[in-house]
Structure formats: C-alpha cells, structure tokens
C-alpha cells in the first residue's frame, strides 16, 4: 500500500513540472504511469498542451488510451523534459534501469532531453548499485556478451517470456540479458564496458545524465527532491 502511494506521490509531482508547449519523454514502468495519468488529467482539466515521446510500445498504448498526444524523436530530436522510472538510484545519481526491457529507447529519450526527471519510490534509493543490469543484445552476439560478463565476474541469464516460450523480444526485436554483478564498484566503467561490446544495443546502467537529473523519491506521505 505504501509503495503504491510512494509511486503515486512521485509520479504526480513530476507531472506538475511539465508546462504548456513541452515535448515530454514518457518513460516505461508503473511509477511513470502515475505521471501519465496526472498529465492526462491536466490535459483534460487545464487544457495542457504537450506532446509525448514514448519509450516503449506499452507506454505508447497507455498514452493513447490516456489521451496524451504523441510525437517522435524524428520530429523532435531535442525535447524539453524526460520523465522515467528506475530500478536503483545511488547517491551520485547513477541509475540501473531496464526491468521493463525498455532501456535502449529510454536512453535515447533521456539523452535528447534538457531535463531528466527520475521518479522512484524511496525503496529504490541505495548507497551502492547492486541490482541486476539488463543488457539488450542482438542474438548473433549473445555468446560473446555472456563470455564478457563472465570475465567481468558477472552471471548472465537470458530473460525468458512468462506467457511466451523462449526469450523476451524487445520493442527493437532483440533480446534482453540480465547480468548480475552484485555490488558495482565503478558504474561508469562497467556501463562503458557493456555498451561497447559488439552487438550490444545498450545496458541498463545510466551514469551520463547526472548534471540534468532531478530524482523525485516518493514516500507514503509525500516526496523528497534529491
Ligand atoms: O524498465 C525501466 O527502466 C523502468 O523505468 C523501471 O526500471 C521502473 O519501473 P517501475 O517504475 O515499475 O519500478
């Protein structure tokens, strides 16, 4: 119950940072859904005029159902604000994302944004990143990735579908590999290592957006802006 309220508090607060005319990056996941619901309310009640760039098929469907007008990075290669969730946030604003297997497009949209708003319930805050790192890879390079992860002391598991036999297929038509490194001492270098493996589209470690990031941490009674 508290987690739901925490996510709602964070998501709603972020939606109120959006202003008329904004092109808004719409992240993926349950927390940013609250942001989208609040934006939908503001569009209907205040006549808020925005366009959203969705980071996943799921977010695009949800946005359409909520009456949020959509556009693309083709039309707006630079956007005003991106609002997205995260699986873990450390005290330096290094993030782990990708539980929803959407981190590749999430990274594109976060990079295109002037301001990056991360909405999390406070349970996602940690001193040191240690969550599993999702990595999107073309199947052709799967074994190469697994070997590299092993050499880096990690354990790589292909993300299997729940209601589909075989691997999860991402919105980009590729597969997602969950790489467990335990505690991550140097997120920047691990991010570079993983992203530079030939065949990898992107990993879920985000360390390059710190300067433009605001973290909204929700709790049962409100929010904390970090
Ligand atoms: O997949 C993602 O990167 C999502 O943003 C995810 O990390 C956050 O999802 P949640 O808001 O449902 O926890």
UniProtKB/TrEMBL annotation:
User: What family is reported?
Assistant: Belongs to the ribose 5-phosphate isomerase family.
- Which pathway does this polypeptide act in? Carbohydrate degradation; pentose phosphate pathway; D-ribose 5-phosphate from D-ribulose 5-phosphate (non-oxidative stage): step 1/1
**Any idea which positions bind substrate?**
28-31, 84-87, 97-100, 124
Tell me the GO BP annotations in alphabetical order. D-ribose metabolic process; pentose-phosphate shunt, non-oxidative branch
Q: What reaction does this catalyse?
A: aldehydo-D-ribose 5-phosphate = D-ribulose 5-phosphate
Enzyme Commission code(s) on record: 5.3.1.6
Judged by the first EC level, this protein's enzyme class is: isomerase
Q: Which UniProt keywords apply?
A: Isomerase
This chain's function reads:
Catalyzes the reversible conversion of ribose-5-phosphate to ribulose 5-phosphate.
Which species is the source of this protein?
Methanomicrobium antiquum
Q: Which GO terms describe its molecular function?
A: ribose-5-phosphate isomerase activity
Q: What is this protein called?
A: Ribose-5-phosphate isomerase A
